[in-house]
Write a structure and sequence with these properties.
- By secondary structure, the chain is α+β, with helices and mostly antiparallel strands.
- It has 19 helices and 13 strands.
- The strands form 3 sheets. Strands 7, 8, 9, 10, 11, 12 and 13 form a 7-stranded mixed sheet that branches. A 3-stranded antiparallel sheet has the order 2-1-3. It has a 3-stranded antiparallel sheet with strand order 5-4-6, covered by helices on one side.
- α7 runs antiparallel to α8.
- The protein is flat, with a radius of gyration of 29 Å.
């Protein structure tokens, strides 16, 4: 017979990929499994109308299940990795031993003068650069084909390569699949540069690699090396094509002891059902109400995952209006509306950079989404009586919890607490990302002419005004009548002229027209 609390959990399971963790009445993990569709898979354990026909192992497992928690993942492949990692950590009684290193391959960049790429299933501490594990052989083949065509390294198996300038290169060089370093067709520095390209590709730093290729393309074109420029162009196109595909290297193979301690201690401190594998953090950045952005960073397994970072241009405030609380509310609302609409995995923990008021507004957004988190995402978030969203305030490093206004004191952790150190690192990263986002937006605005910000003035007309009058500062010194008379030939009438002058003489317009700078 299914226990009432387990039956309630089954009703709220998502029909999405993930990992399920079964516990007994003593909160011990007794079984861990993965599923392409969690709701169907977990429910299958309880569908036997007559357990007399079920195996003794299954009957015993079902009898002992007192709680089920889940970890949502993007794909079934990612669920495989998470399942293996959790089994390795918890060693549940009902699980068959599962070892990741026996199942998933790595790509190894060898520790040699002229490094090679090697695909292997055994990871060693030999000074090489390792990437993986990869759960999809197709992903590895895609990467290797791309490298072979656009970033070929030597594939000869000689570890100590002898460079002989009188040697004739092998057939791989003739087919453009090798740089021919053995025959000194390329220098060690050039080869190392190629290796750095490959490392960037395997790290997923496609943007940085594309920028390197673009600079080489421009230099080649300037030197009239058009074949090399065309090769760089084709490489950039191939990189963007691959970057739009999901390459499966979802998780680190091993967590260091310090990170594992922090995550387990965090689970204990906040009473979470599962380890906080995924943590979202939020912050707001602006300058006197201009370029206001709300930002979200994502940490997985205690480390940042920049590919999941998101930024939101605040829409609910008028230009120049400052309200960090409403900005936080809008950011959290838009973030999780998108997550829910796209059926993306929710985090196990949400961290707000701020104090109790920012936390209160963030909770309003979750309520607006009807995100009764413990009920709707049972097993993904903590139960109702435990905090699952928190705010970390600077200065005293106090942790504010939901309902803090009804409690006498916020949570104060020791300064050497691994949990506090992890939360500080996450808070500092979201703050860095928010400030960088704001500064980039501000720099983009400052690169534009102030005239382009005036309604009715586009780039073309702004350029015409600057050509005719020289600068926005000179225009600001004119009267609307003078501007209308002089600008009649470029479509500036009396109404538009007044609008231009009024804006240029306003506070921000005057600062921009005079070349003033803004500071954080």
């Amino acid at each position: 017979m299914i226990k009432p609390n387990v039956a309630a959990i089954l009703k709220n399971l998502p029909d999405k990929p993930g990992v399920y963790i079964m516990r007994n009445s003593e909160r011990e993990v007794i079984y861990i499994g993965k599923a392409k569709r969690l709701k169907r898979r977990v429910a299958s354990y309880f569908r036997h109308s007559d357990f007399a026909y079920a195996s003794p192992r299954l009957r015993k497992l079902v009898e002992m299940i007192d709680d089920i928690a889940i970890l949502r993942t993007e794909t079934e492949a990612e669920a495989l990795i998470v399942e293996a990692k959790l089994i390795k950590r918890y060693s549940p009684f009902f699980n068959v031993d599962l070892k990741m290193t026996d199942r998933y391959p790595y790509i190894r960049v060898t520790n040699e003068t002229f490094p090679r790429l090697v695909v292997t299933r055994k990871k060693e501490n030999d000074g090489s650069i390792w990437f993986g594990p990869y759960v999809s052989a197709g992903n590895i083949r895609t990467l290797l084909r791309l490298i072979e065509r656009y970033f070929p390294l030597r594939n000869c198996k000689t570890e100590t390569l002898r460079v002989n300038p009188d040697k004739r290169p092998c057939i791989e060089y003739a087919l453009s699949r090798c740089m021919g370093v053995c025959a000194r067709r390329a220098s060690e520095a050039e080869y190392r540069d190629r290796v750095n390209d490959v490392v960037l590709l395997l790290q997923g730093s496609t943007g940085e690699l594309v920028e390197r290729m673009r600079r080489r393309m421009d230099a080649a074109a300037k030197n009239m090396a058009f074949e090399e420029a065309a090769r760089c162009r084709d490489t950039i196109r191939a990189l963007w094509k691959v970057s739009r595909q999901r390459v499966s290297e979802p998780l680190q193979e091993d967590l260091d002891s310090e990170t594992w301690q922090a995550l387990t201690k965090m689970q204990e401190t906040f009473g979470l059902n599962t380890l906080p594998w995924r943590i979202d953090a939020f912050d707001i950045s602006h300058m006197s109400g201009r370029e206001t952005y709300g930002c979200c960073v994502v940490f997985e397994q205690g480390g940042p995952n920049p590919s999941l970072y998101r930024r939101f241009k605040i829409r609910s405030l008028a230009e120049g209006e400052t309200d960090d609380f409403r900005s936080m509310q809008e950011t959290v609302l838009r973030r999780y509306r998108r997550v829910l609409d796209n059926a993306e995995p929710m985090p196990q923990f949400i961290l707000i950079d701020g104090g109790p008021v920012q936390l209160e507004f963030a909770m309003k957004s979750l309520e607006e989404l009807k995100a009764d988190i413990p009920a709707k995402f049972k097993g993904t978030f903590a139960p109702p009586e435990n905090p699952y969203v928190a705010a970390l305030a600077k200065e005293e490093e106090l942790i504010f919890l939901p309902g803090i206004f009804d409690k006498p004191e916020p949570l104060r952790l020791p300064l050497d607490s691994p949990v506090l150190k992890l939360l500080q690192r996450i808070r500092d990263e979201v703050h860095r990302y928010a400030v960088t986002t704001h500064r980039n937006a501000r720099a983009s605005r400052l690169r534009r002419s102030v005239l382009e910000e005036i309604p009715g003035i586009g780039k073309a007309r702004a350029a015409q005004l600057l050509v005719k009058f020289g600068s926005a500062r000179r225009i600001a010194m004119m009267t609307p009548e003078e501007l209308a008379e002089s600008g009649a030939g470029i479509g500036v009438g009396k109404t538009l002229a007044k609008k231009i002058i009024d804006y240029l003489r306003s506070g921000d317009g005057q600062t921009r027209a005079e070349g003033g700078q803004c500071h954080d």
